[in-house]
Amino acid sequence: MKAAVIVFPGSNCDRDVQVALRQSMGREPLMVWHKETDFDAVDLIVLPGGFSYGDYLRCGAMAANSPVMKEVVARAAKGVAVLGICNGFQMLTETGLLPGVLMRNADLRFVCRDVGIKVETSQSVFTSRYEQGEAIRIPVAHHDGNYFADEDTLSALEDRGQIAFRYCDADGTVTPQANPNGSQRNIAGVYNEAKTVLGLMPHPERLADPKLGGNDGRPIFDGLVEALS
Amino acid sequence: MKARVHVTLKNGVLDPQGKAIEQALGALGFGGVEEVRQGKVIEFSLQESDPAKARADVEAMCQKLLANTVIENYAIELDG
């Protein structure tokens, strides 16, 4: 598998993703600066977390209109896998590659801690190494992770199996108490219709090495390498 | 020509920041304040002098960047 990590001014998880990918791929991912308009063919594009362009106007809005993003959108349309983590998820909703929007957390606080998330399906290139319904522990760190979409959109997401992860307690039960930011239906991550694009607020790259306190994020990267090689 | 764009949250979209402002106003003793909604105002100058063209341009700017129409409405004011 070949992968590219897009680097924006204000990205701060690009190198964490680079390390996680290197570990699973056994080779270096391409690091692509936001001003590039073309880059080598890859099987996976990662939009990393951070505060691209200082979160000006709306989180992800400037990045969504940056030069490199036209290419990302064009490749996503051709079926190239795209993974957006945290700020990357916000970019994906701003480009329209994913439905909905990520609003300010309901309690207005920046939330930075491990949360439980339930894997809604293992039928995707991102989650094939998990069991359906499995509860995993992944850190979140965001101020704007409150997923919102209108009722029709939410129903369509449910019907098509596009909800990737939901916030849950330790045994996998989806409860209001387990929801760290007010997201509708406890949504922590969503797919596009073809399940080739995934956006999620939690950071799997931050728990992809036991030395860092856990390994629950690693299967995403291992699964991608297996599916896309 | 000057343009002013008001971006506001659509009805039905929860506004936690508006709620916090409402509570703070209540705590300051301003009673009877309800339904606070926070938005933004974006101002700029345009070289275009034809009002119809200017409005069409600003409309496109709102659609493409200035507002996220999933959750936000926008209103355009042109002056001069």
From TrEMBL, chain A:
Annotated pathway: Purine metabolism; IMP biosynthesis via de novo pathway; 5-amino-1-(5-phospho-D-ribosyl)imidazole from N(2)-formyl-N(1)-(5-phospho-D-ribosyl)glycinamide: step 1/2
CDD domains tied to this protein: GATase1_FGAR_AT
Record's keyword terms, sorted: ATP-binding, Cytoplasm, Glutamine amidotransferase, Hydrolase, Ligase, Nucleotide-binding, Purine biosynthesis
Statement: the UniProt record of this protein carries the keyword Hydrolase: yes
Keyword Cytoplasm: yes
Any one GO cellular component localisation term in the record: cytoplasm
Entry's EC annotation: 6.3.5.3, 3.5.1.2
Alphabetical GO biological process terms: 'de novo' IMP biosynthetic process
Pfam families cross-referenced by the UniProt entry: GATase_5
Main location: cytoplasm
InterPro entries in the cross-refs: Class_I_gatase-like (IPR029062), PRibForGlyAmidine_synth_PurQ (IPR010075)
Membrane spanning stretches: none
Active site: C86, H203, E205
Catalysed reactions, as listed in the record: L-glutamine + H2O = L-glutamate + NH4(+); N(2)-formyl-N(1)-(5-phospho-beta-D-ribosyl)glycinamide + L-glutamine + ATP + H2O = 2-formamido-N(1)-(5-O-phospho-beta-D-ribosyl)acetamidine + L-glutamate + ADP + phosphate + H(+)
Molecular function as annotated in GO: ATP binding; glutaminase activity; phosphoribosylformylglycinamidine synthase activity
Compartments (UniProt record): Cytoplasm
Subunit structure, interactors included: Part of the FGAM synthase complex composed of 1 PurL, 1 PurQ and 2 PurS subunits.
Functional note: Part of the phosphoribosylformylglycinamidine synthase complex involved in the purines biosynthetic pathway. Catalyzes the ATP-dependent conversion of formylglycinamide ribonucleotide (FGAR) and glutamine to yield formylglycinamidine ribonucleotide (FGAM) and glutamate. The FGAM synthase complex is composed of three subunits. PurQ produces an ammonia molecule by converting glutamine to glutamate. PurL transfers the ammonia molecule to FGAR to form FGAM in an ATP-dependent manner.
Entries under PANTHER family matching the protein: PHOSPHORIBOSYLFORMYLGLYCINAMIDINE SYNTHASE SUBUNIT PURQ
Protein name, entry field: Phosphoribosylformylglycinamidine synthase subunit PurQ
Record lineage: Bacteria, Pseudomonadati, Pseudomonadota, Alphaproteobacteria, Rhodospirillales
Gene: purQ
UniProtKB/TrEMBL annotation, chain B:
GO biological process assignments: 'de novo' IMP biosynthetic process
Reactions catalysed: N(2)-formyl-N(1)-(5-phospho-beta-D-ribosyl)glycinamide + L-glutamine + ATP + H2O = 2-formamido-N(1)-(5-O-phospho-beta-D-ribosyl)acetamidine + L-glutamate + ADP + phosphate + H(+)
GO molecular function per UniProt: ATP binding; phosphoribosylformylglycinamidine synthase activity
Major location (coarse): cytoplasm
GO CC field: cytoplasm
Location of the protein in the cell: Cytoplasm
Family classification: Belongs to the PurS family.
Oligomer status and interactors: Part of the FGAM synthase complex composed of 1 PurL, 1 PurQ and 2 PurS subunits.
Task performed by this protein: Part of the phosphoribosylformylglycinamidine synthase complex involved in the purines biosynthetic pathway. Catalyzes the ATP-dependent conversion of formylglycinamide ribonucleotide (FGAR) and glutamine to yield formylglycinamidine ribonucleotide (FGAM) and glutamate. The FGAM synthase complex is composed of three subunits. PurQ produces an ammonia molecule by converting glutamine to glutamate. PurL transfers the ammonia molecule to FGAR to form FGAM in an ATP-dependent manner.
Protein name: Phosphoribosylformylglycinamidine synthase subunit PurS
Native species: Pelagibius litoralis
Gene: purS
